Amino acid sequence: MIMKSLANATKYSPGDAGPLLKTETPLRRVILNAAVTWDYFPGHHDVEYAKSQGQSTIFVNTMFIQGLSDRYLTEWFPSSFIVRRTLKMKGSILAGDEVTVRGTVLDSQVIDGLTFVSTRVAMDTDKQTDCVETLNTSWMRGPHSYAEVGDRLARAVTTLIELNQRA
Amino acid sequence: MTGGFDLPIGTIDDARAMIGRSAPTRFAPGPVNLAMIRHYCGLVQDPNPEYWDEQFSVARWGGQISPPAMTMIWLQPLQWTPEGGETNGTPSLAPNVPLPGNTLINVSTDTYFFRPVFTGMHLNITETLIDISEPKTTRLGEGHFLTTEPVYRTEDGDEVARSRNILFRYEPARGAASEVGA
Question: CA B39, CA B45: separation in Å to the nearest integer?
């Protein structure tokens, strides 16, 4: 295994900002969220239940937020593949919200010849700043096809887990 | 389905007795498929050509890949089966842990992805209860944080993803109107 920091590399420099993404979650899209993800927890489709939970209305689920974060990253880095995503919810994305997504490069490293870039993605709603945060590590596939890499990717992710457990 | 969500009520001791236990492995009700991939990408409005152009995906990945964020979705339980009739559809281990509190919300999740998921795969999931917190009071109400570890595998046993998920099981505070979680 060869590992070196690319923190000073020009391509993925810590602090680099990603594009701004804006999206809305009208009631119809939150209902679509429940249907498409087959998640019938009533907080995602039943306004009265959501209110009984202490929410003001129904809200999107974790799978929506994960997909929005991943979409943001692959639009920013089109040849990337997410290998780690830590999602922390400080608030909920509600029906009727406007969501703004921003990203920042945190660091990059090479494990066994594969380049990984770490990013922070923040989602604000029109009602709450820093509503959701994801900390991500993406494999920058570059010119490699998956057929060339195969199990090397799984081994590199295992190494990444070990490194993160030690940190 | 309207109204409540059937959660087993119990004590913290009932719940702690389950720490370290794994739920029986659950199997996806069907294979990973392109139709659901496109419904999902339509939801999050993801234009990634890997999900809309099969030839493009095959050239890059050797097959049609599924969005990593769909990993949980492929394991969602059916709402009704001929053998079991209607189910309460509780999708994971955590909602089946007996505790005080009549509702829940997901708070955080930390997932590693080891390999892509391709159409045609039949995934399965094994979940283990890792921890239950002492009672905590948050803006939403009083309850317990449950930590579980779901592991997702292919039908060949290859590990696809491994998560740590924290969920808050609570009794809503009266008059609380603060939105936290998903």
Answer: 10
